[in-house]
Amino acid sequence: MDDLRYVYAVCRPLAAPLHADLTGVGGAPPHQLVHEGLVAVVSPVPERDFGREPLRAHLEDLAWLAATARAHQNVVAALATVTCPLPLRLATVFRDDSGVRAMLEDESDRLHRILERIDGHVEWGVKVWLGSGDADGEGAAAGDAAPPSRRPPESGRDYLRRRRAGNAAREESTARAEVFARRLHGDLARYAAGARLHPVQSGPLTDAGAGRNILNSAYLVPRTWSEEFLELIGRTQGARPGLRVEVTGPWAAYSFTDDPESGAEPHGDEGAAEHQDAGGAP
């Protein structure tokens, strides 16, 4: 059974070959497939795992999915140290080299526009978290053995009074956090060539100790402005008690893989998969 072609990213021609020790999905070393000024970074993967039906089954296996995502990110991160790659969706697979070349040919104008947009830029992720204690409206006064809300209520009326006070405190704390997050987003966006507001994180995959996610955003920042961008975030740390600003990056431009002329939504996220036969395009 012939191997398929797994495509990690598209970029402009590299000035040097990929590092000899770099490995991708399944431990295979990636290589460059060049076509008319564009480079697809690819590696062979077995059809028994990445054929249409096996891949669909694998995407339900969280352990397999996590390992594949790490290998995918490993290659994209290596590329990001030497160029500004356009990451493709997780598990973008073609039948053979001719299918990859057909994609580069068919999508040439769009790919060139996106690469022009992200050239010289990196992505920074920023999240704002409201501490769980502040979200609950709890806190002990100096010298208290325990916060008032932790002490047993003295009566039913006391219980209701505490519940109303707790709800009001939570609402006020959340409102202050949202105002802070909006201002921070506006300030950071002025340093960026592009900004994205992602859905806030919630549910079982969120660390229970992290608190409530108020802002989940990404910024396409010129490399030369990254220091000023990070300094601005640093000045916000501790400015609002109970709020924590988390920064990740620099990343390849995962959140900015849309075509600036078409207005299409980004399609380079880690959670999706593409499977293409020869001649198909993602």
Mean pLDDT reading: 82
Which strand order spans the largest sheet, edge to edge or round the barrel?
Answer: 2-3-1-4-9
Largest sheet: 5 strands, mixed
Shape: globular
Number of domains: 2
Assembly type = single chain
What is the CATH domain class of the largest domain?
Alpha Beta
Number of strands: 9
**Structural class of the secondary elements?**
alpha+beta
* CATH fold type of the largest domain: Alpha-Beta Plaits
Approximate strand percentage: 15-25%
- Roughly how many Å apart are the termini? 24 Å
In the CATH classification, which architecture of the largest domain applies? 2-Layer Sandwich
Order of helices and strands: EEEHHHEHHEHHEEHEE
Keywords: Gas vesicle
Protein name: GvpL/GvpF family gas vesicle protein
Region (Disordered): 137-175, 254-282
Subcellular location: Gas vesicle
Give keywords.
2 domains; four-stranded antiparallel beta sheet; 282 residues; globular; five-stranded mixed beta sheet; Alpha-Beta Plaits; gas vesicle; alpha+beta
In words, what does this structure look like?
The protein is an alpha+beta fold. It has 8 helices and 9 strands. Strand 2 (31-35) and strand 3 (38-46) form a beta hairpin. The longest helix has 34 residues, at 156-189. Keywords: Gas vesicle. Its main location: other. It is found in: Gas vesicle. Belongs to the gas vesicle GvpF/GvpL family.
Short description:
This protein has helices at residues 47-50, 52-58, 62-80, 97-106, 108-118, 132-135, 156-189, 226-236; strands spanning 3-11, 31-35, 38-46, 86-94, 121-130, 194-197, 212-222, 243-251, 274-275. It has a 5-stranded mixed β-sheet, sandwiched between helices. The chain has a 4-stranded antiparallel β-sheet with strand order 6-7-5-8. The protein has 282 residues and is an alpha+beta fold.
